[in-house]
Amino acid sequence: MTATIPTQTLPTITYPDSDGKPMSDNTKQFQLIVKIQGGIDALFKDNKNVFVAGDLLWYPVEGDNKTRQAPDTMVVFGRPKGDRGSYQQWLEDNIAPQVVFEIISPGNRMTAMFKLFKFYENYGVEEYYVYDPEDNELIGWLRSDGQLNYIELMEGWVSPRLQIRFETASGDLEIYQPDGQKFLSYVELSRQKELAQKKADRLSEKLREMGINPDEL
After folding, report:
1. Which DSSP string corresponds to the chain?
2. Mean pLDDT of 165-178
3. Who contacts 157 (Cβ-Cβ below 8 Å, separation ≥6)?
């Protein structure tokens, strides 16, 4: 008689979409996160294989739902755009986010920031940027020889991956696209659009005064 060995059912592991922590602790931090995430997303809007997310939980290890972080902004080259509840790396061709941004809030502690650094270093981030709005201090690290190395001069630094330039001389973090255009907030973009529309309306009015119909040009 052959004994039947009962099969063992492994428990299903869930990967929560939220860690219960707020995206930001104040309005300035929130505005910066939105500006950085939105600006980078817009920069790569025509590249379907660049995924940009804000405050999205990243799980680097299959079967481990405790090892995770939710970067304020992360950029992943080689993965398609689209909605995700979390970034489960083993489902994403095992591609780790290459670029990560964190905006420091008053509640951040050195121990927590060190743990963040080690997480990003251990799990393959290539560029890591941290900005403190209170002190207007931007620091960054670039991966080489298997580890994240401190960038000595951040003023005017150009991201190797993103090709965006950082400036803080004005007293705030300013980021410039490769064409020199500055990252703008939604309010700044709205004002820029209004000014452009007013300029177009004045030009149309001038043309009509000259007997030219602008709609026929």
Report:
1. -PPPPPPPPPPPPP--S--S--S-SSHHHHHHHHHHHHHHHHHTTT-TTEEEESS--EE-STT-SSS-B--SEEEEETS-----SSEEGGGTTTPPPSEEEEE--TT--HHHHHHHHHHHHHTT-SEEEEEETTTTEEEEEEEETTEEEE-S--TT-B-TTT--EEE-TTSS-EEE-TTSPBP--HHHHHHHHHHHHHHHHHHHHHHHHTT--GGG-
2. 96
3. 140, 151, 165, 166
Is the pLDDT confidence value at 114 over 60?
yes
Which residues, other chains included, contact 60 with Cβ-Cβ below 8 Å and sequence gap of 6+? 67, 68, 89, 96, 123, 124
CATH code: domain 27-181 is 3.90.1570.10
Domain spans in the chain, listed from the N-terminal domain onward: 27-181, 184-212
Q: Other CB atoms closer than 10 Å to residue 15's CB: what's the count?
A: 16
9 falls in which pLDDT band (50, 70, 90)? low
The pTM of the full predicted model, rounded to 2 decimals, is 0.83
**Residue 29: pLDDT over 70:** yes
